[in-house]
Amino acid sequence: MSTVIYPSPIFGPIHSRRLGLSLGINLLPADGKVCSFNCIYCECGFNEDHRPSLPMPTREAVAAGLEKQLQKMVAEGQLPDVLTFAGNGEPTCHPHFAEIIDDTLALRDKYCPQAKVSVLSNSTMILRPQVHDALMRVDNNILKLDTVDPLYINKVDRPNITYDVQRIIEGMKAFHGHVIIQTMFMRGTLVRADGFPPSEAISVDNTGEEYVAPWLEAVKAIQPQQVMVYTIDRETPAHGLQKASREQLDAIRDRVIAAGIPCTASY
User: Fold this and answer.
1) At 167, is the secondary structure helix, strand, or coil?
2) What is the three-class DSSP state of 150?
3) Which pLDDT value is given to residue 196?
């Protein structure tokens, strides 16, 4: 079972497949996971397996930790390509997310003005005005949209709050292009462990036309600045999941590009 729990509030830098040398900013507790999704593929594991006992870091602690690390990187001559809000769950859940974004932008401008500020979000909080406005201020507003199928969302992303994918899509449109869509494609089956026979498995394959075609229509309606399609890269808490093939990801990427939207595929 995957148990990657990140330090808080600052971790890394690490080399990201999609972003380059990334200094991580974790707004969640250092000893557990807090997320509005409970994805079966999350490298941090299932929410219920990593209940935190520590609080979220304060706005002041985040700013102090970030400044200290940036000063160290400047002294070592190793500046980050990106400052990335990620870590042990959903960063926009932090009650002072908007203020922390302002602090981060100011520190970025002071120490590494060439670096981008990125937020990796599952999109659940984008209908909140303060979250929307904060995401409009960052360089890379990276929002998850794994599918537009509610049944798939409930079995794979497993939201633990009210989640209406059509409202989320409307919220993405409201960024007027200042958004990057990130989508996990995978194959395999999820064996049920909730009282059903062990032999009963549920497909989690979203690479087929029944999923890709409506997802692509939603992407075209959102008109993001970019799309990132990717697949499983690390251990997952659920068993039976498989990587999408390079050929499948390339085919999906090419369809997005053909629609006039830049797209990258990470394998």
Assistant:
1) helix
2) helix
3) 47
Closest of 224, 68, 206 to residue 149, by C-alpha: 206
Cβ atoms of 142 and 118 within 8 Å: the answer is: yes
Within its chain, how far is the Cα of 251 from the centroid? 22
3-state secondary structure of 22: strand
Which residues on neighbouring strands pair with residue 83, listed in sequence order?
A: 23, 117
* Rounded distance between C-alpha atoms, residue 206 and residue 236, angstroms: 17
Alpha carbon distances (Å) from 140 to 39, 48, 227, 236: 22, 30, 11, 26
Whole-number Å distance between alpha carbons of 212 and 218: 10
Q: pLDDT digits over 66-93, tens only? A: 999 999 999 999 999 999 999 999 999 9
Q: Residue 264 has which token pair?
A: 């990258």
Predicted structure pTM score? 0.94
- The two beta strands, 116-121 and 140-144, are parallel
Report the distance separating Cα 141 and Cα 227, nearest Å.
11
Q: How far apart are CA 267 and CA 218, in angstroms?
A: 23
Q: What is the mean pLDDT of the chain?
A: 94
Any idea what DSSP says for residue 155? Answer: I
- Give helix 129-137 / helix 97-111 axis angle, nearest 10°: 10
Reported confidence tier of residue 97, pLDDT bands at 50, 70, 90: very high
Say if residue 117's pLDDT is above 90: yes
